[in-house]
């Protein structure tokens, strides 16, 4: 592939780029202009069968490749990703609408996971106990599963694929990637660079498509594990269908993330962080703060929060003044506008309405301006459901205990944060809250990759999470060996062998 966007996105099967024979495809558009950037094919059954067969065959040799050699591929890969970061960011920005800086951040968080994958040897070490019984030792090995697959969403077309295939492949597996059909250009470039890093043919395959292609991955008996990031309904479907087929599944789903604001918090820090965390990336982040819970006198800050968000303007990816870009599609925009209307109808107070925002020079963009509701109750749709847009709900309570109860009654458990100057309040919150990732004076607590991304409850279906040590456990099995050697064999081993060996 050259640096220009191809007219049709190719598949990557058995180490070769090929145009699909499928008659079924869809346009990939720039969300700010509706310009068609390319077309993405929906892979045929034959193409998918060949991808799985290639991955299965490649596994036989890749699993025997020394772990140090696998780590060197990852070292090469992270160097190439850094070298091409700006090029990748421009592609990513055009197909997602993200601002250039946000696009670079998407790629950088993926690079950090690749760097962790280069440390795979230490993470795959087993355990040993000598003399578990008389002259008997016990030790364990960590071994790869086989062919794994990943189904990734539109909102992070670099970071989330890089959560998956580098860790799986570093562990000794082979991998089939099914990126979002809405923005496949960036994942294609990621795979091109992985090929340049020295990955052998067949270790990584790429197919494109929709539900039919996903069902193929969930049903195929040679695929051992499935990783998924996306919405709650699809996450539930993938987890149920995958586990029904006796596969290992990790499915990261939706969220409703709360920021608790205590009255002793630094007001300037709260407002600055809340603005970026709520509407950054147009709110299309599973870790976005979509609800601020103002405790006690912190409710008096509502006018200043509204004023700060009113200053935020969306715009095109290459506009240095733009705070965020458009939503991914016209359908996504209509969905967010519908939520805004429902919020008004259900009695919430719309302090700031971004429904009619205009971006000069881009009349066809999927724009929604910052939107703020107050007087929100837990029964309202804008609170119960994930909006996935630049919409912030403001709620007020009298005590920290009430804030904790409110959040723990919400079915989601992806991320949350508390802003406070009290160590005691922060400790109480982190201990009692039923959410997997907690920030203390940090708005979006996405952990660095030597930890794991640990959503809870309706935000995650499975047992082992993404990246870090849990990813290694997800992509491997443990083999335990119990061994005994007899002392009498030592004397035999020391005797010279004087016989002639006949072939």
What does this structure look like?
The structure is a single chain. With 503 residues, the chain is α/β, with parallel strands linked by helices. The chain has two domains: 11-253 and 455-482, Aldehyde Dehydrogenase, Chain A, domain 1 (3-Layer(aba) Sandwich), CATH 3.40.605.10; 257-411 and 415-440, Aldehyde Dehydrogenase, Chain A, domain 2. Helix content is 38%, strand content 21%. It has helices at 45-62, 67-83, 85-96, 100-117, 120-123, 159-170, 185-196, 211-219, 232-244, 267-279, 302-310, 330-345, 381-384, 400-409, 423-432, 468-474, 488-494; strands at residues 11-13, 16-18, 25-29, 36-41, 128-133, 136-144, 147-151, 174-178, 204-206, 223-229, 248-252, 257-261, 289-295, 349-352, 371-374, 391-397, 412-413, 415-419, 437-440, 456-457, 460-461, 476-484. It starts with 10 loop residues before the first strand and ends in a 9-residue tail after the last helix.
């Amino acid at each position: 592939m050259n640096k220009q966007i191809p007219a049709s996105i190719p598949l990557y099967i058995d180490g070769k780029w090929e145009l699909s024979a499928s008659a079924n495809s869809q346009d990939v558009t720039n969300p700010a202009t509706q310009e068609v950037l390319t077309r993405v094919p929906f892979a045929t059954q034959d193409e998918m069968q060949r991808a799985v067969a290639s991955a299965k065959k490649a596994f036989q040799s890749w699993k025997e490749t020394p772990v140090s050699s696998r780590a060197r591929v990852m070292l090469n890969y992270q160097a190439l990703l850094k070298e091409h970061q700006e090029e990748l960011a421009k592609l990513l920005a055009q197909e997602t609408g993200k601002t250039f800086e946000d696009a670079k951040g998407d790629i950088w968080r993926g690079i950090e996971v690749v760097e962790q994958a280069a440390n795979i040897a230490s993470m795959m070490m087993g355990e040993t106990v000598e003399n578990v019984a008389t002259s008997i030792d016990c030790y364990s090995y960590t071994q790869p599963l086989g062919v794994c697959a990943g189904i990734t969403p539109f909102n992070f077309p670099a970071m989330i694929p890089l959560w998956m295939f580098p860790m799986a492949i570093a562990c000794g597996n082979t991998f089939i990637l099914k990126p979002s059909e809405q923005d496949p250009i960036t994942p294609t470039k990621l795979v091109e660079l992985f090929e340049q890093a020295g990955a052998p043919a067949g270790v990584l395959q790429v197919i494109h498509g929709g539900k039919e292609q996903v069902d193929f991955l969930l049903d195929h008996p040679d695929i051992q594990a499935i990783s998924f990031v996306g919405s709650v309904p699809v996450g539930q479907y993938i987890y149920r269908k995958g586990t029904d087929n006796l596969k290992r599944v990790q499915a990261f789903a939706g969220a409703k993330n709360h920021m608790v604001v205590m009255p002793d918090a630094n007001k300037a820090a709260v407002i600055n962080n809340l603005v970026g965390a709520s509407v950054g990336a147009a709110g299309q982040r599973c870790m976005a703060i979509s609800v601020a819970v103002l405790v006690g006198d912190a409710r008096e800050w509502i006018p200043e929060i509204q004023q700060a968000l009113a200053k935020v303007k969306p715009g095109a990816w290459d506009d240095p003044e733009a705070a965020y870009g458009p939503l991914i599609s016209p359908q996504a925009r209509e969905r967010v506008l519908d939520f805004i209307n429902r919020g008004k109808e259900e009695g919430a107070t719309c302090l700031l309405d971004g429904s009619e925002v205009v971006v000069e020079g881009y009349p066809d963009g999927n724009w929604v301006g910052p939107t703020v509701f107050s007087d929100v109750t837990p029964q309202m749709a804008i609170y119960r459901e994930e909006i996935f847009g630049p919409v912030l709900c403001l709620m007020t309570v009298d005590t920290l205990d009430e804030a904790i109860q409110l959040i723990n009654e919400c079915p989601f458990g992806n991320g949350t944060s508390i802003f406070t100057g009290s160590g005691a309040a922060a400790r109480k919150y982190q201990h009692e809250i039923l959410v997997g990732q907690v920030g203390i004076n940090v708005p979006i607590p996405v952990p660095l990759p030597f930890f794991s991304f640990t959503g809870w409850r309706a935000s995650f279906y499975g047992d082992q999470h993404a990246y870090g040590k849990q990813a290694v456990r997800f992509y491997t099995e443990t083999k335990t060996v119990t061994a005994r050697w007899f002392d009498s064999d030592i004397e035999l081993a020391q005797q010279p062998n004087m016989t002639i060996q006949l072939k």
